[in-house]
Amino acid sequence: MSQLGNNAELGDELGISQIVTSLREVRLTALELRNRLNRPPKLPARKALAGVVEGLGAALFPNRLGLPDLREEGIDYFVGHTLDVALRELVAQVRLELSFIAELDQVEDVKVRATALVREFASQLPAIRHLLDSDIRAAYEGDPAARSVDEVLVCYPGINAITHYRIAHVLHQLGVPLIARMITEIAHSATGIDIHPGAQIGEGFFIDHGTGVVIGETSIIGRHVRLYQAVTLGAKRFPVDADGTLVKGNARHPIVEDDVVIYAGATILGRITIGRGSVIGGNVWLTYSVPPNSNITQAQMGEGAPAGPRNGTVTHQ
């Protein structure tokens, strides 16, 4: 008997035919409930996007993330070829997202829109490289264990997460939030660092160690900010509308101004402002704004917190 026949017999023995039928019924019911019975979703592929980001990283840093035997005279060719492969795949993935959200009468326009969007994204790659250079320098200058900027680029999980974020943030701004979120979640899975692509982060950003860092969607982070592991920039509450549905898109995460250091385990919640040059100590739970050059420690939290609603600026140092 052929292998195909053996597989069929095994399938019947295990009841696979009935399972396939049951799964089809569940699937069709779910599509009907979402009004997608005639338009099953075809979404971007996580594996393809991981390859896109890897290719973009190699094009941005060809000497360090490209081919090991790459010679100077071949760098431009390598960068051009690598970008061509990565960006063509990105166009295909963007088409999937745009098709998913498009109305039926807009589907024909998706290919043109996807190409234009990826062209605009590609034009911003030099700016992304500039920002990443500043992040790498910040990590090298901020960590006494770093022996070179090259070590920082190839070893530090914070730089891995920030690279994914910098790419994803541009895509988020250009109107493909699903792809952007998938890209940052690839880094989240690999590093334990969760940065929403909608967050706004200035140059010279350094995440040391990094595991457990969470940066929410509407966070605004200034220039030359340093975070340590397990820092949360989160929302204090989740408002709902009259129907009890969560209100989405409102500004609900902290604003962290320039030159702030936030040590391990600090939790900062709500739309509050951490003033420029402040230092937030380890394991602090902070739900009110602090002025520039504040030094907030765990010991101060009991006596230093203002009375009444904790959403205004306090003046203790």
Map the helices and strands.
Layout: H1 3-14, H2 16-33, H3 46-60, H4 62-65, H5 75-101, H6 110-123, H7 125-142, H8 149-155, H9 157-174, H10 177-191, E1 194-195, E2 200-201, E3 206-207, E4 214-215, E5 220-221, E6 226-227, E7 232-234, E8 255-256, E9 261-262, E10 267-269, E11 273-274, E12 279-280, E13 285-286, E14 295-296, H11 301-304
Parallel strand pairs: 1-4, 2-5, 3-6, 4-7, 5-8, 6-9, 7-10, 8-11, 9-12, 10-13, 12-14
Short description:
With 317 residues, the chain is α/β, with parallel strands linked by helices. Helices cover 48% and strands 9% of the residues. A five-stranded parallel beta sheet has the order 1-4-7-10-13. Strands 3-6-9-12-14 form a five-stranded parallel beta sheet. It has a four-stranded parallel beta sheet with strand order 2-5-8-11, with no helix packed on it.
